[in-house]
Amino acid sequence: MNETKNAAVKEEPKKAEVTEKKTEAEAEEKKETAPAAKEEAKEEKKETPAEEGNEEINTDDLFKHRVSINLTPENAWFSPSAGGLISLKIINAEGEEEFFERVVIRRSFPVTSPDEFLSVREPDTRAKGRGAEIGMIRNIHIFDQTTVDLINAELDIRYFTPTISKITSAKEKFGYTYWEAETSAGKVSIVLNNPFSNIRVLEDGRIYIFDMDGNCFLIPDPAALDRQSFRAIEIYI
Amino acid sequence: MKLFYDMPAGDRAAYDAAASPDEVLMYCVPFNVWQERFVSGWTAVTDRAIYCILDGKVLSTTALERCTVFSTEVLYGNCAFYGVVDGTTTLICQFLSGRNLPRYSVLVQACEDLAKKRRESRAPGDPVVNEEHERFCPKCGRPFIPGTNICPFCRNSKEVYKKLWGLTRGLRWMLFFPLFVSVISLAIQFILPAIQRVAVNDYLTNESIHPLGSFAEDPHKRAFLLIFLAIITIDLVQRVLGVIQSRLSAVAGNKFTLMMRTLLYEKISTLSISSISHKSTGDLMGRITGDVNAVQAFMTGQLPSLFTQAASFVLALVFLLIINPLMSMFVFVPIPFVVWLVKNFWSTMQNRNRKNWVLGYHVNLFLQDILNGIRVVKSYGNEEREIATFHRRTDRHAAQTESNALLFDTFFPLLGFVTRIGSYLILFYGNYLLFKGTMNYGDLHQFNSYANIIYGPLIWITGIPRQISAFLTSLGKVLEILEEQPEVADIGLPIDIDIEGDVRFENVTFGYDSYNPVLEGINLDVKKGEMIGVVGHSGSGKTTLINLLMRLYDVTEGAIMIDDVNIKDISQNALRSQIGVVLQETHLFSGSIRDNIKYAKPHASDEEVIEAAKMANAHDFIVNLPDGYNTMIGEKGYSLSGGERQRVAIARALIHNPKILILDEATAALDTETEKLIQDAINKLSKNRTTFAIAHRLSTLRNADRLIVLDKGHLAECGTHQELLDKKGFYWRLVMAQRQDSGMLDKADKILAAKKTATA
User: Fold this and answer.
1) What is the pTM for the complete model shown?
2) A107 and A138 housed in the same domain
3) Three-class DSSP category at B747
4) Which end of chain B is more exposed for a tag (fewer CB within 10 A), N or C?
């Protein structure tokens, strides 16, 4: 009894492969798979008799993933959490209400479309590893202004990219580039190693700069910089 | 790594006001970002709470007893430190990853520990001390040169020079004799204009001299001949000295390079894997070749030049002042202007050349990219677009090259003219004096010669600071390796034992970075001759376990015992010569197959080589190669297939008859048939040997006596195949997962076959 049940459960994924060839004889096939399955289960038993009697475990569960949904004002409600982060209540794919104490929001296209295709995820944790995607926001502006502000505040923390307005001093020493710059986040000393790979120019002319501290800076329009600042970056672009 | 910073007085006062007097300040680390601004704030952790302090104000206080889990997260351009307060995740502060991520990673553990102790009202204990290296200069805050502890701004150059002096032992006379020679050569150079003056004044322009007769009678003629000979001799001597100096410099430079390279290579070879793996192969190669060259070039090229240039400047100056102090003013007046102009011209040119280089580099990069992927370009029909891109890039490059050339060709001749301003002034004033009769022609000639000498060193010296700093950086990088202490070192009197094969892991904990343990609390007892299969997800610590057994790294806590002797007490040589290793990525050296098999035992006889190859199932394929065991393999030789390489590697591991055998994914990259051959070889050789085999494909391990399952650095399960399956834990899940992948097809086949027999 146990054996057949067990085998039947395991049968599931194989069927897809087999049925193609014998769709015309569905009924007949059912009769025949039973002994086949029995035989197969016996074989299994030789190798790993331990598996006997574990019908309660469906191996497919090991590979189950959360279904990501399209988040809209109709099925998702963002709110500030007690810890100053974002909580989310959704109606999930099964139509059930679900609440997340904290969600993480990532941009799919942080450079080209920062307001679109936001991926809303469970946070990564040490215990569970990478968090799953709860859903996606097609465009942030389908939500009301309070929600937009809430999400943007979180995104501003996550994508901290100060804008450089002026490079007051630029030195190259020992193969490193040392800059003193004024940015939207205050004055800062920037040290770049290998400026050719850490200064990236996008097609639309914007420049992203990654320094040794792990900072990311943006120059939205290099042509608008003053002459001295432009000369400092000019040789790398 | 520093975990306790001293707060500035204002912030400290704010902390003192907020904390109760009996609170113990355990850690204090900086945070860098607050409300989208760069700030300099402090995260102070006491035995009771976490305070964030900024500009003399406490921004937030988080009571530890309400916290459970802490975590860090790398964001874009900064990092966040979170704590779970009363079950709610809370952002505590933001910091910069490059600067403080390792610090906060330690803090995460420390805070969780403190919070736990606080809840259980236990004593907080002593703060955690971390030995990790800083990556930023403690003095100026700028980053160290990556992979080193050198801050280019704060290094003590005196000390560096002192060490360099020590290194030149045995080569000193060779390095300094050329200096001495060049000084002589220089002195002679200064005699020449003086003699020329005599020749001009006393003979060429002296109208009172009339040829009287033979050389023997005429003192003037004799003197003239003497001067003529002196000029030739001086020139000759100067050239001979030049030859001597160049030859000596070449020899000394070469010797110096040879010595430095050998020293460096020896040192790198003796350093432990942990020190080496922090540096990339490219970096190490750069230090052995590039940096040593730079140091040598400075020592034998730039240093003597610097010396002679400086000396000739001073000498020329003195002579000028002696001949005519007033006229020497004319030399000096334009100097500041000339130096300024030359410097500016070259820096502009340098910038422009640099830009040109970058544009050329982009063209090359593009070509490399597209030519490598030309099939893709063609198969998507994108030739037109790529041609347009190429045009755009080459056009920019060409335009820049053109503009650079135009500028250079226009200004360089002008620059030549400007540098000679001094000479024109001298010519003008000198002629004036000549006409007036207060100066004679010979003096003017001599003066002019010295004036021409003085400009050379001046222009040359403007480039010196850059050269010195480049030299110091290279030297620092070389010295750093020479002075590094191997982390894994033999004890004073290491034991050479004959290993039987019992291995015991006693509570082993280890992490490549001390704040991030890869293995935690591993206990394992292996009898000699046992075969242990090691399984687990990637990143679970399997290879680390093996690395520890080979003692490529030392354990952080606990001990590994072989035959009841701590491996720290066994000499590394004795240990590793009795362990055989086969890795997934087999590295065979350039040379013959025979040489490669003999690598582990250089004096092995040919019989032993064949025996090892036979055990590894490699003999047959080797004999079938045209050159048999003498087939050259490696870079320029015959290329073996993956399975063949693997079997040669197994033969290499076997030849010295190791008591402990390690197989790290030795068969992962092979097809099933080759795998079977190798599997057979492994079965043969694992007899009577303690064997550790890591494998992803679980079927490889079916002969293992016991299996251990590692999960996130912990020993999750341990037992025979059967025991673990019965447990239905981690191992069982792995087996099931693999069945789903690979077992599906042949199960379908089985069903079909069964169906056929049923219908028949």
Assistant:
1) 0.64
2) yes
3) helix
4) C
